[in-house]
Amino acid sequence: MYPEQAPHVPAQRAVGVHQPTPLPPTVPVAAPVVPVQPGAVPAVASIVLPDGRVVTGYAINPVQPEPVAAKPPVSRAAVNIALGGVGFAAVCGGLLMLTTFIAALTAFITQLITLAAVIFGGWIAVQVFSAHGHGKSATTVNIRRAVIKRNHFHI
Q1: How far is CA 73 from CA 51, 69, 76, 77, 78, in A?
Q2: What's the pLDDT score for residue 111?
Q3: Which residues face 149 on adjacent strands?
Q4: Measuring CA to CA, which residue among 60, 38, 63 is closest to residue 47?
Q5: 8 A C-beta contact, residue 45 and residue 56
Q6: How confident is the model at residue 69 (pLDDT cuts 50, 70, 90)?
Q7: Neighbouring residues of 132: CB distance < 8 A, sequence distance ≥ 6
Protein backbone atom coordinates (compact mmCIF):
# COMPACT_ATOMS: atom_id res chain seq x y z
CA MET A 1 0.00 0.00 0.00
CA TYR A 2 2.85 2.37 0.79
CA PRO A 3 6.06 2.68 -1.21
CA GLU A 4 9.17 1.27 0.30
CA GLN A 5 10.30 2.95 3.44
CA ALA A 6 13.29 4.77 2.10
CA PRO A 7 14.90 7.57 4.02
CA HIS A 8 14.35 10.77 2.15
CA VAL A 9 16.33 13.95 2.33
CA PRO A 10 14.36 17.10 3.04
CA ALA A 11 14.07 19.36 0.04
CA GLN A 12 16.65 22.06 -0.06
CA ARG A 13 15.52 25.49 -1.08
CA ALA A 14 17.44 28.60 -1.77
CA VAL A 15 16.75 31.03 1.03
CA GLY A 16 17.26 34.68 0.35
CA VAL A 17 17.46 37.20 3.17
CA HIS A 18 15.92 40.56 2.41
CA GLN A 19 17.35 43.53 4.23
CA PRO A 20 15.10 46.58 4.55
CA THR A 21 16.32 49.67 2.76
CA PRO A 22 16.15 52.73 5.00
CA LEU A 23 14.28 55.68 3.56
CA PRO A 24 15.83 59.13 3.74
CA PRO A 25 14.15 61.31 6.33
CA THR A 26 11.64 63.69 4.89
CA VAL A 27 12.03 67.35 5.64
CA PRO A 28 8.82 69.32 5.41
CA VAL A 29 9.23 72.10 2.90
CA ALA A 30 7.34 75.20 3.86
CA ALA A 31 5.41 76.77 1.04
CA PRO A 32 6.41 80.36 0.37
CA VAL A 33 4.09 82.87 1.93
CA VAL A 34 2.64 85.17 -0.70
CA PRO A 35 0.85 88.25 0.58
CA VAL A 36 -2.61 88.59 -0.89
CA GLN A 37 -4.61 91.75 -0.88
CA PRO A 38 -8.08 91.40 0.58
CA GLY A 39 -10.99 92.02 -1.76
CA ALA A 40 -11.99 95.17 0.09
CA VAL A 41 -9.72 97.20 2.32
CA PRO A 42 -11.34 97.54 5.73
CA ALA A 43 -11.61 100.93 7.28
CA VAL A 44 -9.02 101.95 9.84
CA ALA A 45 -10.44 102.97 13.18
CA SER A 46 -8.78 105.09 15.86
CA ILE A 47 -9.78 105.05 19.51
CA VAL A 48 -8.71 107.58 22.14
CA LEU A 49 -8.18 105.91 25.51
CA PRO A 50 -9.07 107.74 28.78
CA ASP A 51 -5.39 108.38 29.52
CA GLY A 52 -5.00 110.17 26.19
CA ARG A 53 -3.31 107.48 24.12
CA VAL A 54 -4.62 106.78 20.62
CA VAL A 55 -4.99 103.19 19.38
CA THR A 56 -5.36 102.69 15.65
CA GLY A 57 -6.38 99.44 14.00
CA TYR A 58 -8.85 97.66 11.84
CA ALA A 59 -12.35 97.25 13.15
CA ILE A 60 -13.27 93.61 13.53
CA ASN A 61 -16.88 92.70 13.36
CA PRO A 62 -17.73 89.99 15.86
CA VAL A 63 -18.52 86.66 14.26
CA GLN A 64 -22.13 85.83 14.81
CA PRO A 65 -23.23 82.23 14.73
CA GLU A 66 -25.68 81.22 12.09
CA PRO A 67 -29.20 81.23 13.37
CA VAL A 68 -30.55 77.82 14.23
CA ALA A 69 -33.59 76.86 12.26
CA ALA A 70 -36.55 77.08 14.56
CA LYS A 71 -38.24 73.75 15.09
CA PRO A 72 -41.96 73.79 14.59
CA PRO A 73 -43.65 73.40 17.92
CA VAL A 74 -45.40 70.10 18.56
CA SER A 75 -48.70 70.40 20.31
CA ARG A 76 -49.20 68.66 23.62
CA ALA A 77 -52.27 66.93 22.23
CA ALA A 78 -50.18 65.33 19.46
CA VAL A 79 -47.63 64.14 22.01
CA ASN A 80 -50.35 62.71 24.26
CA ILE A 81 -52.02 60.94 21.34
CA ALA A 82 -48.70 59.43 20.23
CA LEU A 83 -47.85 58.26 23.74
CA GLY A 84 -51.36 56.87 24.16
CA GLY A 85 -51.00 54.92 20.93
CA VAL A 86 -47.69 53.47 22.04
CA GLY A 87 -49.17 52.49 25.40
CA PHE A 88 -52.23 50.95 23.77
CA ALA A 89 -50.01 48.90 21.44
CA ALA A 90 -47.95 47.70 24.39
CA VAL A 91 -51.06 46.65 26.32
CA CYS A 92 -52.50 44.85 23.28
CA GLY A 93 -49.23 43.01 22.75
CA GLY A 94 -49.09 41.99 26.41
CA LEU A 95 -52.68 40.74 26.35
CA LEU A 96 -51.99 38.79 23.18
CA MET A 97 -48.98 37.13 24.77
CA LEU A 98 -50.98 36.39 27.94
CA THR A 99 -53.79 34.83 25.90
CA THR A 100 -51.29 32.72 23.97
CA PHE A 101 -49.65 31.59 27.20
CA ILE A 102 -53.00 30.61 28.74
CA ALA A 103 -53.97 28.66 25.59
CA ALA A 104 -50.63 26.82 25.59
CA LEU A 105 -50.95 26.04 29.30
CA THR A 106 -54.49 24.70 28.78
CA ALA A 107 -53.32 22.47 25.93
CA PHE A 108 -50.44 21.18 28.07
CA ILE A 109 -52.72 20.36 31.01
CA THR A 110 -55.16 18.62 28.64
CA GLN A 111 -52.33 16.50 27.28
CA LEU A 112 -51.23 15.58 30.81
CA ILE A 113 -54.77 14.53 31.74
CA THR A 114 -55.07 12.47 28.55
CA LEU A 115 -51.72 10.82 29.23
CA ALA A 116 -52.76 9.98 32.80
CA ALA A 117 -56.06 8.51 31.55
CA VAL A 118 -54.27 6.36 28.97
CA ILE A 119 -51.76 5.09 31.51
CA PHE A 120 -54.39 4.45 34.16
CA GLY A 121 -56.72 2.79 31.62
CA GLY A 122 -53.88 0.59 30.44
CA TRP A 123 -53.09 -0.40 34.00
CA ILE A 124 -56.76 -1.31 34.59
CA ALA A 125 -56.82 -3.32 31.35
CA VAL A 126 -53.71 -5.24 32.39
CA GLN A 127 -55.27 -6.01 35.77
CA VAL A 128 -58.53 -7.24 34.25
CA PHE A 129 -57.12 -9.29 31.40
CA SER A 130 -54.22 -10.79 33.33
CA ALA A 131 -56.54 -12.30 35.97
CA HIS A 132 -58.33 -14.54 33.46
CA GLY A 133 -56.96 -17.26 31.30
CA HIS A 134 -53.21 -17.43 31.86
CA GLY A 135 -53.38 -20.26 34.35
CA LYS A 136 -53.36 -18.05 37.37
CA SER A 137 -55.62 -18.96 40.21
CA ALA A 138 -58.44 -16.55 40.74
CA THR A 139 -61.35 -16.53 43.12
CA THR A 140 -64.67 -16.64 41.35
CA VAL A 141 -67.71 -15.60 43.33
CA ASN A 142 -71.14 -16.71 42.27
CA ILE A 143 -73.20 -13.66 43.11
CA ARG A 144 -76.50 -15.56 43.01
CA ARG A 145 -75.46 -17.72 45.97
CA ALA A 146 -73.63 -14.97 47.89
CA VAL A 147 -75.22 -13.34 50.89
CA ILE A 148 -74.40 -9.73 51.67
CA LYS A 149 -74.17 -9.03 55.42
CA ARG A 150 -72.87 -5.70 56.59
CA ASN A 151 -71.36 -4.89 53.20
CA HIS A 152 -69.37 -8.15 53.05
CA PHE A 153 -69.88 -11.11 50.78
CA HIS A 154 -70.45 -14.38 52.55
CA ILE A 155 -70.65 -17.49 50.45
Answers
A1: 53, 12, 9, 12, 10
A2: 97
A3: 152
A4: 60
A5: yes
A6: confident
A7: 138
